[in-house]
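User: Show me a protein chain along with its predicted structure.
Assistant: Here is one chain, sequence first, then structure tokens.
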Amino acid sequence: MFRSLFPLGAAAFFAVAAFAQIGPRRAVVRASGDGIVSIKPDQAKVSVGVTTQAQTAQEAGDQNAAATSKVLGDLRGLLGANADIRTLNYSLNPRYEGNPARLTGYTASNTIQVTLSDLNLPGRVIDTAVQAGATNILGISFSLKDPQPARMQALRMATMQAKADAEAIAGGLGLRLGNFTIAQEGSSVVVTPFDARTPAAAGTPTPIEVGNVDVRATVAIEAEMVQ
């Protein structure tokens, strides 16, 4: 048979003491803030593709390899042997037509991405790739090599906004802020999009307008409200 080590009165005393130690929860206020820093990008990525079609998989692959090699060679001739060029995707798939479907050939696709520090070059990269045999311009994205300084600035802005909002709410209730109990952040680099349209005709440079990169931060806080 279980027997308590403490008499009933002692147990009640400990329960009351524990409640007193915890104490009643104070009123709290929650607020969030946003911070956005717009800054000129220092990096661009251009994605181009080479697509070929042939009756056999071997022919489609061989034609694509030759065309892609020409594009890569001309891009390195423009940018130098140490240019940051990488393959993003390669596929070789059968093509079917009709009902019932019948095999009509094969399609090979190779997607290349070029990373640039000189933002005067994206238009020339597009023109060079198209003239060398690229069949698709898949897009351009602008970004920051190191977004951390701008992120820190955006976080400070978001925190100040959240605190100001919390102070305004507390003030409206005739209270003021006490201790902060929660502070959470979430931030991201928003890359400026670029709509890659049909390249300009041969001899006409493709114009590229570089916009800003927005570095956005959000902060949520919780603070006690006191008299």
